[in-house]
Design a protein that fits this description.
Blueprint: E1 4-9, H1 17-31, E2 35-40, H2 55-58, H3 67-76, E3 79-87, E4 90-91, H4 93-100, E5 114-121, H5 130-141, E6 147-155, H6 167-178
Parallel strand pairs: 1-2, 1-3, 3-5, 5-6
Antiparallel strand pairs: 3-4
Helix pairs in contact: 1-6
């Protein structure tokens, strides 16, 4: 049965390592007969959450920016895959701001159950992924029907393109195939 898969790449660098992992995940998902779309946060206008909680009553955010077209896609997706570089041992700020803006989904009906997370870091230590994983798990915990189904860590990816020669590329592809 074909799934509706949404891949969200948070890197602001064109051709970044995390973006390459996102492309591999998507390639695997498409080859398995799924419908897949990739959204790149680069070039999107996504403002900070105001914390007004109006969305909890209306189901819509009061901020008029690019999240208005992304949120329905998230809501309708069966699977969501996030890709982020590690900045200062956490997910990048763009992804954190994005996740904060998904607050309208919290009280809503949503389809997604499977969440995947692709991480790249210049650091070679596994501990570099702990901060991003903790933050992502905190977001997932707010959606009781969702669970973290897979993680790929491209560690030691310092320069753009470094991840191409790493096992993380095949791991991302294989996760996409099984999503």
């Amino acid at each position: 049965m074909s799934k509706n898969i949404l891949v969200i790449s948070a890197s602001l660098r064109n051709g970044s390592n995390s973006d390459m992992l996102a492309d591999e995940f998507m390639r695997g998902a498409l080859e398995s007969g799924n419908k897949a779309e990739k959204i790149t946060l680069r070039g999107k206008c996504i403002n900070f959450c105001k914390g007004c909680l109006a969305c909890q009553k209306t189901g819509k955010c009061v901020i008029n920016d690019d999240m208005a077209e992304i949120l329905p896609k998230m809501q309708q997706a069966d699977v969501i895959c996030f890709a982020s570089p590690v900045y200062f041992y956490d997910m990048c700020g763009q992804l954190k701001t994005f996740l904060d803006r998904t607050n309208p989904l919290f009280p809503a009906e949503y389809n997604f159950t499977d969440i995947y997370f692709l991480i790249t870091a210049a650091d070679t230590e596994q501990s570099a992924s702990e901060g991003p994983l903790k933050g992502m798990q905190g977001w997932i915990d707010c959606f009781e029907n969702a669970g973290l189904k897979g993680v790929v860590c491209g560690l030691g990816a310092e320069k753009p393109g470094d991840v191409k020669s790493m096992p993380a590329m095949n791991e991302a592809y294989m996760l996409g195939k099984q999503a």
